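User: Can you help me understand a structure? I only have the sequence.
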Amino acid sequence: FQITHYKQYPPDVGKIYSYFECRTKKGDRFNEVVFFGLQYLLKKYLSGPVVTEEKIQQAKQIYQLHFKQSVFDEQGWRKILEKYDGRLPVRIKAVPEGKIIPRGNVLFTVENTDPDFFWLTNYIETMLVQMWYPITVATMSREFKKILATYLKATSGSLEGLEYKLHDFGYRGVSSQESAALGGAAHLVNFCSTDTVAGLLMAQQYYNCPMAGFSIPAAEHSTIISWGRNREKEAFERLLDHFPTGPISVVSDSYDIFKACKQIWGDKLKERVLERSDDSTLVIRPDSGDPVETVTEVLKILEDCFGSSLNPVGYKVLPPFIRIIQGDGIDIHSIEEILKKLKEEGWSAENVFFGCGSALLQKINRDTLNCAFKCSYVEKTDGTGMDVYKQPVTDPSKGSKRGRLSLRRNSDGFIETVEKGNGKPEEDMLVTVFENGNVVQEYSLEEIRKNARLWEEDLVLLQHNEDDLNAKEHQKQHIMNGMH
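Assistant: Let's start by predicting it. Here is the structure, written out as C-alpha coordinates:
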Protein backbone atom coordinates (compact mmCIF):
# COMPACT_ATOMS: atom_id res chain seq x y z
CA PHE A 1 0.00 0.00 0.00
CA GLN A 2 2.76 2.46 0.91
CA ILE A 3 5.08 1.37 -1.91
CA THR A 4 4.15 4.23 -4.25
CA HIS A 5 3.63 6.95 -1.66
CA TYR A 6 7.13 8.37 -2.02
CA LYS A 7 5.95 9.69 -5.40
CA GLN A 8 2.78 11.24 -4.00
CA TYR A 9 4.01 13.67 -1.33
CA PRO A 10 4.69 17.36 -2.19
CA PRO A 11 8.06 17.75 -3.95
CA ASP A 12 9.53 20.03 -1.26
CA VAL A 13 8.57 17.96 1.79
CA GLY A 14 11.36 16.97 4.19
CA LYS A 15 9.55 15.58 7.23
CA ILE A 16 6.43 13.52 7.85
CA TYR A 17 5.24 13.28 11.45
CA SER A 18 2.49 10.79 12.37
CA TYR A 19 0.90 9.39 15.50
CA PHE A 20 -1.04 6.38 16.81
CA GLU A 21 -4.11 6.50 19.03
CA CYS A 22 -7.10 4.47 20.16
CA ARG A 23 -9.98 6.73 19.21
CA THR A 24 -12.86 7.33 21.60
CA LYS A 25 -16.15 5.60 20.96
CA LYS A 26 -19.33 6.71 22.67
CA GLY A 27 -20.89 4.06 24.86
CA ASP A 28 -17.88 1.72 24.73
CA ARG A 29 -16.99 -0.04 28.00
CA PHE A 30 -13.28 0.42 27.31
CA ASN A 31 -12.56 4.00 28.34
CA GLU A 32 -8.83 3.48 28.75
CA VAL A 33 -6.12 1.29 27.25
CA VAL A 34 -3.02 -0.51 28.45
CA PHE A 35 -0.06 0.40 26.26
CA PHE A 36 1.99 -2.72 25.56
CA GLY A 37 3.94 -4.50 22.82
CA LEU A 38 5.92 -1.80 21.01
CA GLN A 39 9.23 -2.95 22.46
CA TYR A 40 8.75 -6.38 20.89
CA LEU A 41 7.89 -4.99 17.45
CA LEU A 42 10.84 -2.60 17.51
CA LYS A 43 13.34 -5.24 18.60
CA LYS A 44 12.00 -7.93 16.30
CA TYR A 45 11.47 -6.00 13.08
CA LEU A 46 12.91 -2.47 13.08
CA SER A 47 16.14 -2.36 15.09
CA GLY A 48 19.58 -2.82 13.62
CA PRO A 49 20.59 -3.01 9.94
CA VAL A 50 17.22 -4.15 8.56
CA VAL A 51 17.84 -2.94 4.98
CA THR A 52 20.14 -5.22 2.96
CA GLU A 53 21.00 -5.54 -0.73
CA GLU A 54 19.34 -8.95 -0.77
CA LYS A 55 16.07 -7.49 0.55
CA ILE A 56 16.21 -4.61 -1.95
CA GLN A 57 16.56 -7.03 -4.85
CA GLN A 58 13.81 -9.24 -3.49
CA ALA A 59 11.45 -6.27 -3.06
CA LYS A 60 12.27 -4.97 -6.54
CA GLN A 61 11.38 -8.31 -8.09
CA ILE A 62 8.20 -8.85 -6.06
CA TYR A 63 6.78 -5.38 -6.66
CA GLN A 64 7.57 -5.49 -10.38
CA LEU A 65 5.49 -8.66 -10.64
CA HIS A 66 2.85 -7.39 -8.24
CA PHE A 67 2.19 -3.97 -9.79
CA LYS A 68 3.15 -4.95 -13.36
CA GLN A 69 5.16 -1.74 -13.58
CA SER A 70 8.29 -0.26 -12.00
CA VAL A 71 7.14 1.53 -8.83
CA PHE A 72 9.61 0.39 -6.17
CA ASP A 73 11.96 3.10 -4.82
CA GLU A 74 15.15 1.12 -5.27
CA GLN A 75 17.29 4.25 -5.14
CA GLY A 76 15.77 5.44 -1.84
CA TRP A 77 16.26 2.13 -0.07
CA ARG A 78 19.82 1.73 -1.37
CA LYS A 79 20.56 5.19 -0.03
CA ILE A 80 19.49 4.04 3.45
CA LEU A 81 21.76 1.04 3.06
CA GLU A 82 24.74 3.15 2.01
CA LYS A 83 24.21 6.15 4.30
CA TYR A 84 23.03 4.39 7.46
CA ASP A 85 24.27 0.83 6.98
CA GLY A 86 20.66 -0.26 6.59
CA ARG A 87 19.40 1.31 9.81
CA LEU A 88 16.16 3.27 9.67
CA PRO A 89 16.50 7.07 10.14
CA VAL A 90 13.35 7.31 12.23
CA ARG A 91 12.48 8.56 15.72
CA ILE A 92 9.64 7.03 17.73
CA LYS A 93 8.39 8.52 21.00
CA ALA A 94 5.93 6.50 23.04
CA VAL A 95 4.06 6.16 26.30
CA PRO A 96 5.98 3.95 28.77
CA GLU A 97 4.75 0.38 28.38
CA GLY A 98 2.09 -0.65 30.86
CA LYS A 99 0.77 2.89 31.33
CA ILE A 100 -2.99 3.29 31.48
CA ILE A 101 -4.07 6.00 29.04
CA PRO A 102 -7.60 7.31 28.35
CA ARG A 103 -8.92 6.61 24.86
CA GLY A 104 -8.47 9.42 22.36
CA ASN A 105 -4.91 10.31 23.36
CA VAL A 106 -1.65 9.98 21.47
CA LEU A 107 0.18 6.75 22.35
CA PHE A 108 3.23 7.10 20.13
CA THR A 109 4.61 9.38 17.41
CA VAL A 110 6.84 8.62 14.42
CA GLU A 111 9.01 10.99 12.36
CA ASN A 112 11.92 10.73 9.96
CA THR A 113 15.24 12.16 11.14
CA ASP A 114 16.71 12.71 7.66
CA PRO A 115 14.77 14.86 5.13
CA ASP A 116 15.78 12.54 2.30
CA PHE A 117 13.60 9.83 3.84
CA PHE A 118 10.34 11.68 4.58
CA TRP A 119 8.45 8.74 3.02
CA LEU A 120 9.75 6.31 5.64
CA THR A 121 7.48 7.52 8.48
CA ASN A 122 4.28 6.16 7.02
CA TYR A 123 5.99 3.35 5.14
CA ILE A 124 6.33 1.51 8.46
CA GLU A 125 2.70 2.24 9.42
CA THR A 126 1.49 -1.26 8.55
CA MET A 127 3.96 -2.83 10.95
CA LEU A 128 3.34 -0.33 13.73
CA VAL A 129 -0.45 -0.42 13.54
CA GLN A 130 -0.24 -4.09 14.49
CA MET A 131 0.20 -2.62 17.96
CA TRP A 132 -3.61 -2.81 18.07
CA TYR A 133 -3.33 -6.48 19.04
CA PRO A 134 -1.16 -6.44 22.20
CA ILE A 135 -2.82 -3.21 23.35
CA THR A 136 -6.28 -4.73 22.96
CA VAL A 137 -5.39 -8.01 24.70
CA ALA A 138 -3.69 -6.22 27.60
CA THR A 139 -6.68 -3.88 27.90
CA MET A 140 -9.20 -6.74 27.74
CA SER A 141 -7.22 -8.72 30.31
CA ARG A 142 -7.16 -5.73 32.67
CA GLU A 143 -10.94 -5.32 32.32
CA PHE A 144 -11.30 -8.96 33.41
CA LYS A 145 -9.03 -8.13 36.33
CA LYS A 146 -11.19 -5.19 37.42
CA ILE A 147 -14.26 -7.42 37.50
CA LEU A 148 -12.49 -10.19 39.40
CA ALA A 149 -10.94 -7.73 41.85
CA THR A 150 -14.29 -6.09 42.54
CA TYR A 151 -16.04 -9.34 43.42
CA LEU A 152 -13.06 -10.85 45.21
CA LYS A 153 -12.72 -7.79 47.41
CA ALA A 154 -16.47 -7.66 48.08
CA THR A 155 -16.83 -11.34 48.97
CA SER A 156 -13.52 -12.07 50.72
CA GLY A 157 -12.31 -8.73 52.05
CA SER A 158 -8.96 -8.95 50.25
CA LEU A 159 -7.33 -9.42 46.84
CA GLU A 160 -5.20 -12.41 47.79
CA GLY A 161 -4.61 -14.64 44.78
CA LEU A 162 -6.05 -12.17 42.28
CA GLU A 163 -3.11 -12.58 39.88
CA TYR A 164 -3.99 -16.28 39.44
CA LYS A 165 -7.74 -15.87 38.96
CA LEU A 166 -7.75 -15.75 35.13
CA HIS A 167 -5.82 -18.47 33.32
CA ASP A 168 -4.89 -18.02 29.65
CA PHE A 169 -6.45 -20.95 27.72
CA GLY A 170 -6.04 -19.24 24.35
CA TYR A 171 -2.98 -20.84 22.72
CA ARG A 172 -4.86 -23.20 20.39
CA GLY A 173 -7.52 -20.63 19.52
CA VAL A 174 -5.30 -17.96 17.97
CA SER A 175 -4.29 -17.51 14.35
CA SER A 176 -0.53 -18.05 14.69
CA GLN A 177 2.40 -18.73 16.96
CA GLU A 178 3.25 -15.02 16.97
CA SER A 179 -0.30 -14.13 18.01
CA ALA A 180 -0.03 -16.63 20.85
CA ALA A 181 3.28 -15.13 21.94
CA LEU A 182 2.24 -11.49 21.74
CA GLY A 183 -1.26 -12.01 23.11
CA GLY A 184 -0.02 -14.37 25.79
CA ALA A 185 2.58 -11.84 26.93
CA ALA A 186 -0.04 -9.08 26.94
CA HIS A 187 -2.22 -11.09 29.33
CA LEU A 188 0.81 -11.56 31.59
CA VAL A 189 0.95 -7.81 32.12
CA ASN A 190 -2.06 -8.32 34.41
CA PHE A 191 -1.96 -11.95 35.57
CA CYS A 192 0.54 -14.70 36.39
CA SER A 193 -1.56 -17.67 35.23
CA THR A 194 -1.20 -19.16 31.74
CA ASP A 195 -0.86 -22.24 29.59
CA THR A 196 0.33 -20.21 26.58
CA VAL A 197 4.02 -21.05 26.69
CA ALA A 198 4.77 -18.81 23.70
CA GLY A 199 3.84 -15.82 25.85
CA LEU A 200 6.30 -16.90 28.52
CA LEU A 201 9.09 -17.12 25.95
CA MET A 202 8.29 -13.68 24.60
CA ALA A 203 8.30 -12.16 28.08
CA GLN A 204 11.64 -13.84 28.69
CA GLN A 205 13.28 -12.83 25.41
CA TYR A 206 11.92 -9.32 24.94
CA TYR A 207 10.88 -8.14 28.42
CA ASN A 208 13.61 -9.52 30.69
CA CYS A 209 11.33 -11.76 32.76
CA PRO A 210 12.74 -15.24 33.55
CA MET A 211 9.30 -16.68 34.34
CA ALA A 212 6.20 -14.55 33.88
CA GLY A 213 3.44 -17.10 34.52
CA PHE A 214 2.63 -20.42 36.11
CA SER A 215 0.40 -23.44 35.67
CA ILE A 216 -0.50 -26.74 37.32
CA PRO A 217 -0.89 -30.35 36.12
CA ALA A 218 -4.27 -30.62 34.42
CA ALA A 219 -6.35 -33.32 32.75
CA GLU A 220 -8.03 -33.04 29.37
CA HIS A 221 -10.89 -35.14 28.08
CA SER A 222 -8.61 -37.56 26.23
CA THR A 223 -6.82 -38.54 29.43
CA ILE A 224 -10.17 -39.24 31.07
CA ILE A 225 -12.26 -40.89 28.34
CA SER A 226 -9.36 -43.13 27.27
CA TRP A 227 -10.16 -45.14 30.40
CA GLY A 228 -13.69 -45.81 29.18
CA ARG A 229 -17.01 -44.58 30.53
CA ASN A 230 -17.15 -47.10 33.35
CA ARG A 231 -13.67 -46.27 34.63
CA GLU A 232 -13.94 -42.52 35.20
CA LYS A 233 -13.18 -43.09 38.89
CA GLU A 234 -9.94 -44.85 37.99
CA ALA A 235 -9.00 -42.01 35.65
CA PHE A 236 -9.51 -39.49 38.46
CA GLU A 237 -7.67 -41.66 40.93
CA ARG A 238 -4.62 -41.92 38.67
CA LEU A 239 -4.23 -38.15 38.83
CA LEU A 240 -4.42 -38.24 42.62
CA ASP A 241 -1.79 -41.00 42.65
CA HIS A 242 0.66 -39.25 40.33
CA PHE A 243 0.25 -35.76 41.75
CA PRO A 244 -0.15 -36.25 45.51
CA THR A 245 1.22 -32.78 46.29
CA GLY A 246 0.62 -29.45 44.64
CA PRO A 247 -2.62 -28.34 42.97
CA ILE A 248 -4.15 -30.38 40.13
CA SER A 249 -7.00 -29.60 37.75
CA VAL A 250 -9.33 -32.38 36.61
CA VAL A 251 -11.93 -31.93 33.87
CA SER A 252 -14.99 -33.76 35.21
CA ASP A 253 -17.80 -33.32 32.69
CA SER A 254 -16.89 -36.08 30.24
CA TYR A 255 -20.20 -37.79 31.04
CA ASP A 256 -22.08 -36.13 33.89
CA ILE A 257 -20.43 -33.32 35.85
CA PHE A 258 -23.01 -33.48 38.64
CA LYS A 259 -22.67 -37.25 39.17
CA ALA A 260 -18.88 -36.96 38.97
CA CYS A 261 -18.87 -34.37 41.75
CA LYS A 262 -21.43 -36.15 43.93
CA GLN A 263 -20.72 -39.83 43.42
CA ILE A 264 -16.99 -39.92 42.58
CA TRP A 265 -15.29 -36.88 44.11
CA GLY A 266 -17.81 -36.56 46.93
CA ASP A 267 -18.19 -40.28 47.73
CA LYS A 268 -15.94 -42.93 46.20
CA LEU A 269 -12.84 -40.71 46.27
CA LYS A 270 -13.89 -38.50 49.15
CA GLU A 271 -11.23 -39.79 51.56
CA ARG A 272 -8.55 -39.25 48.94
CA VAL A 273 -9.70 -35.66 48.46
CA LEU A 274 -9.91 -35.01 52.21
CA GLU A 275 -6.32 -36.11 52.72
CA ARG A 276 -4.96 -33.49 50.31
CA SER A 277 -3.27 -30.56 52.04
CA ASP A 278 -4.24 -26.90 51.72
CA ASP A 279 -1.51 -26.31 49.13
CA SER A 280 -2.48 -29.40 47.11
CA THR A 281 -5.91 -28.27 46.01
CA LEU A 282 -8.09 -30.38 43.75
CA VAL A 283 -9.50 -27.99 41.13
CA ILE A 284 -12.57 -29.45 39.44
CA ARG A 285 -13.24 -28.25 35.90
CA PRO A 286 -16.73 -28.22 34.43
CA ASP A 287 -16.53 -27.71 30.66
CA SER A 288 -20.07 -27.66 29.30
CA GLY A 289 -23.57 -26.37 29.94
CA ASP A 290 -24.71 -22.94 31.03
CA PRO A 291 -21.71 -21.49 32.91
CA VAL A 292 -23.76 -19.66 35.55
CA GLU A 293 -26.05 -22.59 36.33
CA THR A 294 -23.29 -25.21 36.17
CA VAL A 295 -20.87 -23.42 38.49
CA THR A 296 -23.63 -22.68 40.99
CA GLU A 297 -24.87 -26.27 41.02
CA VAL A 298 -21.36 -27.75 41.31
CA LEU A 299 -20.65 -25.50 44.29
CA LYS A 300 -23.83 -26.71 46.01
CA ILE A 301 -22.94 -30.36 45.44
CA LEU A 302 -19.39 -29.88 46.72
CA GLU A 303 -20.75 -28.07 49.77
CA ASP A 304 -23.07 -30.99 50.51
CA CYS A 305 -20.15 -33.41 50.22
CA PHE A 306 -17.32 -31.45 51.86
CA GLY A 307 -18.99 -28.67 53.80
CA SER A 308 -18.22 -24.95 53.78
CA SER A 309 -17.37 -22.16 56.19
CA LEU A 310 -17.97 -18.43 56.36
CA ASN A 311 -15.09 -16.07 55.67
CA PRO A 312 -14.54 -12.81 57.62
CA VAL A 313 -17.05 -10.93 55.46
CA GLY A 314 -19.76 -13.58 55.72
CA TYR A 315 -19.51 -15.42 52.39
CA LYS A 316 -19.28 -19.20 52.02
CA VAL A 317 -15.97 -20.85 51.17
CA LEU A 318 -15.29 -24.50 50.37
CA PRO A 319 -12.48 -26.23 52.27
CA PRO A 320 -9.09 -25.11 50.88
CA PHE A 321 -8.38 -28.53 49.36
CA ILE A 322 -11.13 -28.16 46.74
CA ARG A 323 -11.94 -25.44 44.19
CA ILE A 324 -13.51 -24.98 40.73
CA ILE A 325 -12.14 -23.61 37.47
CA GLN A 326 -14.60 -22.55 34.75
CA GLY A 327 -13.10 -22.12 31.30
CA ASP A 328 -15.97 -22.90 28.96
CA GLY A 329 -17.94 -19.92 27.64
CA ILE A 330 -15.96 -17.30 29.52
CA ASP A 331 -15.87 -13.74 28.24
CA ILE A 332 -16.07 -10.26 29.71
CA HIS A 333 -19.84 -10.59 30.15
CA SER A 334 -20.27 -14.18 31.36
CA ILE A 335 -17.57 -13.89 34.03
CA GLU A 336 -19.45 -11.01 35.62
CA GLU A 337 -22.74 -12.93 35.39
CA ILE A 338 -21.19 -15.88 37.21
CA LEU A 339 -19.60 -13.77 39.93
CA LYS A 340 -22.78 -11.77 40.43
CA LYS A 341 -24.83 -14.97 40.80
CA LEU A 342 -22.36 -16.48 43.26
CA LYS A 343 -22.42 -13.32 45.35
CA GLU A 344 -26.23 -13.38 45.40
CA GLU A 345 -26.12 -17.03 46.51
CA GLY A 346 -23.72 -16.17 49.33
CA TRP A 347 -20.57 -17.64 47.76
CA SER A 348 -17.17 -15.98 47.85
CA ALA A 349 -15.23 -15.49 44.60
CA GLU A 350 -12.42 -17.34 46.40
CA ASN A 351 -14.05 -20.63 45.35
CA VAL A 352 -13.66 -20.19 41.61
CA PHE A 353 -10.87 -19.69 39.11
CA PHE A 354 -11.51 -18.90 35.46
CA GLY A 355 -9.91 -19.77 32.16
CA CYS A 356 -10.36 -17.76 28.98
CA GLY A 357 -9.33 -18.58 25.44
CA SER A 358 -10.56 -17.00 22.25
CA ALA A 359 -12.46 -14.20 24.01
CA LEU A 360 -9.12 -13.08 25.44
CA LEU A 361 -6.77 -13.60 22.51
CA GLN A 362 -8.79 -13.93 19.31
CA LYS A 363 -12.30 -12.41 19.32
CA ILE A 364 -10.94 -8.89 18.92
CA ASN A 365 -9.85 -6.71 16.02
CA ARG A 366 -8.40 -3.29 15.24
CA ASP A 367 -11.82 -1.70 15.66
CA THR A 368 -12.30 -3.08 19.19
CA LEU A 369 -10.40 -0.03 20.42
CA ASN A 370 -10.60 1.96 17.16
CA CYS A 371 -6.84 2.05 16.63
CA ALA A 372 -5.57 4.51 14.02
CA PHE A 373 -2.29 5.93 12.66
CA LYS A 374 -2.47 9.41 11.09
CA CYS A 375 -0.17 12.14 9.82
CA SER A 376 -0.48 15.38 11.82
CA TYR A 377 2.51 17.51 10.77
CA VAL A 378 4.67 18.04 7.71
CA GLU A 379 7.77 20.13 7.20
CA LYS A 380 9.33 21.47 4.03
CA THR A 381 13.02 21.14 3.29
CA ASP A 382 13.44 24.84 4.16
CA GLY A 383 12.17 24.14 7.70
CA THR A 384 8.68 25.57 7.22
CA GLY A 385 6.15 23.46 9.11
CA MET A 386 2.43 22.90 8.63
CA ASP A 387 -0.15 21.25 10.93
CA VAL A 388 -2.28 18.79 8.93
CA TYR A 389 -5.36 16.76 9.70
CA LYS A 390 -8.31 14.87 8.26
CA GLN A 391 -11.91 15.86 9.00
CA PRO A 392 -14.33 13.73 6.93
CA VAL A 393 -17.78 15.26 6.68
CA THR A 394 -19.31 11.77 6.57
CA ASP A 395 -17.83 10.67 9.93
CA PRO A 396 -16.62 13.32 12.42
CA SER A 397 -15.35 10.57 14.74
CA LYS A 398 -12.56 9.91 12.25
CA GLY A 399 -11.19 13.43 12.55
CA SER A 400 -7.49 13.43 13.39
CA LYS A 401 -5.19 15.49 15.59
CA ARG A 402 -3.15 18.44 14.37
CA GLY A 403 0.52 19.29 14.57
CA ARG A 404 3.27 17.99 16.82
CA LEU A 405 1.80 16.21 19.82
CA SER A 406 2.70 15.70 23.43
CA LEU A 407 0.96 13.92 26.30
CA ARG A 408 0.70 15.41 29.75
CA ARG A 409 -1.17 15.21 33.04
CA ASN A 410 -2.82 18.59 33.52
CA SER A 411 -3.30 20.56 36.74
CA ASP A 412 -6.55 18.70 37.43
CA GLY A 413 -4.77 15.35 37.20
CA PHE A 414 -6.29 14.37 33.86
CA ILE A 415 -4.17 12.93 31.04
CA GLU A 416 -4.57 14.92 27.84
CA THR A 417 -2.99 15.35 24.42
CA VAL A 418 -1.55 18.77 23.58
CA GLU A 419 -1.70 19.51 19.85
CA LYS A 420 -0.11 22.00 17.41
CA GLY A 421 3.31 21.83 19.07
CA ASN A 422 2.09 23.68 22.15
CA GLY A 423 3.26 21.11 24.69
CA LYS A 424 6.06 21.70 27.15
CA PRO A 425 8.93 19.17 26.83
CA GLU A 426 9.28 18.86 30.62
CA GLU A 427 5.61 17.78 30.88
CA ASP A 428 5.64 15.32 28.00
CA MET A 429 4.88 11.71 29.00
CA LEU A 430 6.11 10.44 25.62
CA VAL A 431 9.61 8.96 25.78
CA THR A 432 12.01 8.43 22.87
CA VAL A 433 12.21 4.65 22.52
CA PHE A 434 13.68 4.29 19.02
CA GLU A 435 16.11 6.47 17.08
CA ASN A 436 18.02 5.82 13.87
CA GLY A 437 17.77 2.06 14.03
CA ASN A 438 18.38 1.67 17.75
CA VAL A 439 16.05 0.85 20.65
CA VAL A 440 17.09 3.51 23.17
CA GLN A 441 14.64 2.83 26.01
CA GLU A 442 13.60 -0.59 27.31
CA TYR A 443 11.12 -1.74 29.95
CA SER A 444 11.10 -4.96 31.94
CA LEU A 445 7.86 -6.84 32.52
CA GLU A 446 8.23 -6.00 36.19
CA GLU A 447 8.16 -2.27 35.38
CA ILE A 448 5.26 -2.74 32.98
CA ARG A 449 3.21 -4.63 35.57
CA LYS A 450 3.83 -1.84 38.04
CA ASN A 451 2.57 0.71 35.53
CA ALA A 452 -0.55 -1.35 34.81
CA ARG A 453 -1.55 -2.22 38.38
CA LEU A 454 -5.08 -1.59 39.57
CA TRP A 455 -6.04 1.39 41.68
CA GLU A 456 -8.79 1.62 44.25
CA GLU A 457 -10.68 3.93 41.90
CA ASP A 458 -10.80 1.19 39.23
CA LEU A 459 -12.94 -0.92 41.53
CA VAL A 460 -15.09 1.94 42.73
CA LEU A 461 -15.89 3.03 39.19
CA LEU A 462 -16.73 -0.51 38.14
CA GLN A 463 -19.07 -0.98 41.09
CA HIS A 464 -20.98 2.17 40.20
CA ASN A 465 -20.91 1.55 36.42
CA GLU A 466 -19.47 5.00 35.81
CA ASP A 467 -18.26 5.76 32.32
CA ASP A 468 -16.31 8.91 33.05
CA LEU A 469 -12.63 8.03 32.99
CA ASN A 470 -11.69 11.46 34.32
CA ALA A 471 -12.99 10.55 37.76
CA LYS A 472 -10.55 7.65 37.71
CA GLU A 473 -7.64 9.81 36.69
CA HIS A 474 -8.41 12.49 39.27
CA GLN A 475 -7.21 10.72 42.39
CA LYS A 476 -4.55 8.06 42.12
CA GLN A 477 -3.56 7.70 45.74
CA HIS A 478 -4.10 4.08 46.70
CA ILE A 479 -2.46 1.10 45.07
CA MET A 480 -4.48 -1.99 45.91
CA ASN A 481 -1.59 -4.36 46.63
CA GLY A 482 1.74 -5.50 45.25
CA MET A 483 1.77 -6.21 41.52
CA HIS A 484 -1.98 -5.74 41.40
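Now, to help you interpret it: Confidence is low (pLDDT under 50) at residues 466-484. Residues 252 and 285 are 6 Å apart (CA to CA). Let me know which part you'd like to focus on.
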